[in-house]
Amino acid sequence: MTELKTWVRDNSTLVYFLIAQALAIGAAGASVLAYMVKLETRVSIMETRGASYTVERLAKIDDRITILQQQTEANTQRLDRIIDVMTKKLNINP
User: Which domain holds residue 24?
Assistant: First the structure.
């Protein structure tokens, strides 16, 4: 036992370094574990809440597309009428 005490006294810097290294590794492990738990919690929340949010957002996008398609069809009809009127006028007065 006395040999151990003298060895620790003689190599105290090494002992302190090893203890500090063990604490640092433990703290890093705890930090990584906390980050992984936090990330898993976020993913779980996104999976439960995000599904309905995504469906709502896609429904809104579909509604916008439908409105834009209707507007495009109406504009196409108007342009066709304008073209008909313009060509009739051109044909009447050559």
Answer: 2-92
